[in-house]
Amino acid sequence: MTATPFPVGEIVAARRPHRKDAARNFDALLAAAREAFAEHGSDASLEDIARRAGVGIGTLYRNFPTRRDLFESVYADEVDALCRAAVEVAELEPWEALTAWLDRFAGYMVTKRAVREALNDESEIFQTCRDSMYAAGGPLLERAQRAGVARPDMDFADLLRMVAGITATAFDDDAQRDRVLAIALDGVRTGR
Asked: Where does residue 190 fall: left (phi above 0), alpha (psi -120 to 50 degrees), or beta otherwise?
């Protein structure tokens, strides 16, 4: 897999300010929003997000004029990181590459649930993010299938639905979630 940019990367780059101080504030706001959405869902307070980022509410609104702009930016940034992760793990053995990426995908699902409450699936940003995610992760499954370590009778959509279903469940802690995900992935693995 090459370091070819995915369409979502263009969205993230276009929204990110060029000045270093403004870019730092933008990144801090994204990180704070991601954390707040994971904790409080789509109802997270914008004032709390600004406070967590160490900026004023005016800085938040300069970067994200509407709550929807903030949701879209957080979502696009998460998917962009997921796409970059696929490139980073691509040199691992096929099964390890696939499971390393799926572990990152499971973490991404926490943010996605909160953002999904606020955005509809028909939005342009969702389609671009979905296309980018499939372009990044799909080849990892295909490579694992060609290597004979993943079931040949499933496609990438099947795999994502399985992992998304698992991550939608409430767990006692991350260790329990990871254990359940590992059990499910044993059903995907072949030819040990």
From this structure: beta
